[in-house]
């Protein structure tokens, strides 16, 4: 009985040993694979799902912001291109009633264009200093307009009208209810909710004269807010307090949940509201105080990840069960041989390490020791390969002044096994590499890195025992020359030898010679001095040496900025149209600088001053400042390496700034524009488009059109449309509405007003008179 109990105990122990081995050899990899699957694969799926949701939300927010931005652009264009300014000047002037009514009808036509937007319910002009409101169909007093034309619910009306005060720069009002009813009746047909976008004019005035109101239909806006994804249950437009402005769905958003999400979660991330729901938000780029919030159904979004997680758990459970069965079988069959091996192992010691209890410890130790040896070899090779890089980085930090005291330099040098003498006489050479224009874009960053690596190796070969070489920036190398008693190292001679290595066809190299110092801790002063010498580099091609002697002997003094008289001459030549002399004067400056051997810093300052004068002269007439273009022009001057590159750069800049158009070309383009108007008279013809086509401002184009054609641009289009309208009236049976659309008018009323203006009668009466 006792023997049976002992054997059973030993088999149990063996079972656990086999299971431990199985656990170490099989289950640990399976467990690691399961953990990796859950933490990486599943996480990747979750991240992909989150990224997909972010992409959809981003696209949705950009699309919605684009809708608001397009609406803002239309509103700004309407206020700047319409006759609002002219109409305001006639306010209170009763001398020319006809002109005032003509301007009102023109503004009504502009309101019709805004009314045609997909989200716009109604657009109108609200005049702050007059009892007047103008929309696309009528003009009337304020009380009558908001009572008959745009009736607002009484509870919302006071808050809505309070928005028409002070400066309003694309401000959205709160939601308000609008009734649909025939004018001058009390029969309400339907009602709907709107929000209004307000823009005051003049734009920068705190007491504006007029407000442009564009009312957006909230029902249509809710349709646009919908995201057609099954995991998105609701989308909302929310203000900073958490109040929902627009909602597509039935989910509720608590203020504390929204504020907690904004404080704790970055944009685009998922904020888990509960076990089943999550929130995601994107900040509006159109209005900084708006947030687009989506309510996410987490089980639907993460269903693939949950499925893989369940399969992984089932797979792990299967391996545990299989391991238990195998361990039980082996414990029954192999107990005696394992007992003998175990007894033999317990009598052995591996150095200072004893064999641990349980399992085949020898194999475990053998495998572990083999792995340890292999890892040690890899680590040794890695450290050996990193020493040169770390030491070069250490030298760069000393030169840049990060390590200035001897104690810190000694400490870090020991850490990286860097041999050096604290007291040594040394000089720093700073080499700056500037690639010529043809090679700047042709050479990749990898190619440039190989060029610098090869250059460093060649410099070290000049005197391996006395030169340290390191890269201090992407286009600069530093060489530390040690004045050893046994190895002679003269800075000027070494600079001459390095100069020969730098004679390359694809870059210009400048060598700055620093002053000599006597300790490693003072190397940063020599390096700073070498950098200051590089400021005196020239614009000559090839390698050059910049030292104290060359600076004083070779550089001629000169002005780095234009005088007031020279700037005035540039303006006078520009106004006289003598563009060629502007370019010749720059070439003369460059020739004078070349003869005087002026340095690059001086010449680039002078050329930048010339470019600044050119731009000011051009802007005095064009008034179309383009900061991106002008910044690139200044940058192109700064990138010049040689005199010829500077000449070519100013040729290119001259071609950009002083484009001229011959009179024959102008007449040909106007002929083409007139032909286009005649062929497309029924379309919207933008004067801005034609002005940009001829590279003119709108005012310049309008004056040129009248000079060449004999009529104003707007008058020419209107008369040509009236001519076509008369043909349709006399030669066809088309309805008045169809003829209006055929000749480019948005509505019947605006067509009739313009026809009566030019013909003196309405279109219907004109047709009747001539048919009779």
TrEMBL record:
Entry-linked InterPro entries: CdaR_GGDEF, Homeodomain-like_sf, HTH_AraC
Keyword Transcription regulation on entry: yes
Residue span, HTH araC/xylS-type domain: 671-769
Domain of life assignment: Bacteria
Transmembrane segments: 20-42, 310-330
One Pfam family from the record: HTH_18
Presence of keyword Isomerase: no
Organism the protein comes from: Gordoniibacillus kamchatkensis
Alphabetical keyword list: DNA-binding, Membrane, Transcription, Transcription regulation, Transmembrane, Transmembrane helix
Protein name: AraC family transcriptional regulator
């Amino acid at each position: 009985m006792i023997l049976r109990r002992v054997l059973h105990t030993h088999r149990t122990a063996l079972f656990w040993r086999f299971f431990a081995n199985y656990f170490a050899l099989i289950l640990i990899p399976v467990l690691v694979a399961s953990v990796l699957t859950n933490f990486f694969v599943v996480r990747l799926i979750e991240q992909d799902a989150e990224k997909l949701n972010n992409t959809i939300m981003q696209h949705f927010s950009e699309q919605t912001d684009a809708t608001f931005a397009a609406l803002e652009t239309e509103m700004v264009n309407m206020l700047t291109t319409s006759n609002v300014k002219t109409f305001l000047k006639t306010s209170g002037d009763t001398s020319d009633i006809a002109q005032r009514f003509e301007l009102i009808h023109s503004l009504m036509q502009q309101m019709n264009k805004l009314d045609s937007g997909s989200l716009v319910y109604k657009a109108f002009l609200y005049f702050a200093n007059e009892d007047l409101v103008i929309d696309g169909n009528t003009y009337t007093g304020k009380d009558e307009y908001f009572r008959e034309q745009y009736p607002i619910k009484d509870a919302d009306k006071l808050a809505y009208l309070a928005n028409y005060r002070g400066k309003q720069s694309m401000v959205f009002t709160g939601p308000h209810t609008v009734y649909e009813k025939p004018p001058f009746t009390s029969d309400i047909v339907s009602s709907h909710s709107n929000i209004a976008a307000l823009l005051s004019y003049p734009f920068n005035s705190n007491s504006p004269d007029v407000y442009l109101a564009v009312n957006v239909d909230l029902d249509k806006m809710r349709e646009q807010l919908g995201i057609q994804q099954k995991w998105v249950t609701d989308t909302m437009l929310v203000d900073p307090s958490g109040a929902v402005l627009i909602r597509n769905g039935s989910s509720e958003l608590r203020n504390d949940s929204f504020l907690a999400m904004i404080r704790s979660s970055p944009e685009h991330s998922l904020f888990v509201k509960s076990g089943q729901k999550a929130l995601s938000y994107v900040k509006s780029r159109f209005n900084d105080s708006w947030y687009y919030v989506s309510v996410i159904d987490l089980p639907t979004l993460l269903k693939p990840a949950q499925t893989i997680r369940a399969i992984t758990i089932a797979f792990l459970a299967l391996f545990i069960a299989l391991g238990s069965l195998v361990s039980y079988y082996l414990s029954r069959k192999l107990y005696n041989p394992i007992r003998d091996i175990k007894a033999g192992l317990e009598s052995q010691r591996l150095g200072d390490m004893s064999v641990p209890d349980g399992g085949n410890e020898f194999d475990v130790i053998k495998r572990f020791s083999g792995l340890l040896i292999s890892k040690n070899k890899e680590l040794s090779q890695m450290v050996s390969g990193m020493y040169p890089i770390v030491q070069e980085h250490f030298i760069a930090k000393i030169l840049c002044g990060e390590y200035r005291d001897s104690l810190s330099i000694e400490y870090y040098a020991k850490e990286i096994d860097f041999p050096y003498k604290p007291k040594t006489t040394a000089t720093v050479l700073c080499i700056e590499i500037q690639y010529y224009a043809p090679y700047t874009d042709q050479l990749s960053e990898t190619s440039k890195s190989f060029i610098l690596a090869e250059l460093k190796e060649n410099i070290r070969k000049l005197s391996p025992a006395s030169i340290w070489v390191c890269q201090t920036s992407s286009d600069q190398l530093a060489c530390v020359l040690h004045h050893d008693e046994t190895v002679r190292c003269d800075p000027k001679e070494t600079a001459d030898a390095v100069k020969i290595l730098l004679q390359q066809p694809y870059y210009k190299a400048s060598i700055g010679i620093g002053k000599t110092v006597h300790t490693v801790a003072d190397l940063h002063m020599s390096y700073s001095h070498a950098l200051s010498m590089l400021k005196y580099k020239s614009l000559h091609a090839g390698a050059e040496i910049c030292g104290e002697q060359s600076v004083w002997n070779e550089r001629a003094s000169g002005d780095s900025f234009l005088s007031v008289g020279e700037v005035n001459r540039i303006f006078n030549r520009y106004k006289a149209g003598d563009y060629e002399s502007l370019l010749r004067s720059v070439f003369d400056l460059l020739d004078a600088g070349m003869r005087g051997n002026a340095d690059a810093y001086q010449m680039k300052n002078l050329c930048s001053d010339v470019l600044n004068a050119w731009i000011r002269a051009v802007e005095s007439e064009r008034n179309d400042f383009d900061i991106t273009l002008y910044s690139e022009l200044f940058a192109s001057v700064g990138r010049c390496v040689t005199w010829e590159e500077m000449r070519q750069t100013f040729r290119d800049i001259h071609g950009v700034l002083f484009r001229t158009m011959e009179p024959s070309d102008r007449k040909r383009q106007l002929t083409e524009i007139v032909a286009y108007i005649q062929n497309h008279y029924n379309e919207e013809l933008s004067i801005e488009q034609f002005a940009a086509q001829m590279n003119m401002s709108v005012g310049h184009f309008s004056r040129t059109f009248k000079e060449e054609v004999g009529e104003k641009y707007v008058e020419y289009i209107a008369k040509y449309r009236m001519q076509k309208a008369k043909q349709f009236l006399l030669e066809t049976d088309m309805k008045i509405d169809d003829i209006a659309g055929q000749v480019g008018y948005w509505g019947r009323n605006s067509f009739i007003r313009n026809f009566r203006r030019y013909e003196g009668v309405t279109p219907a009466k004109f047709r009747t008179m001539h048919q009779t």
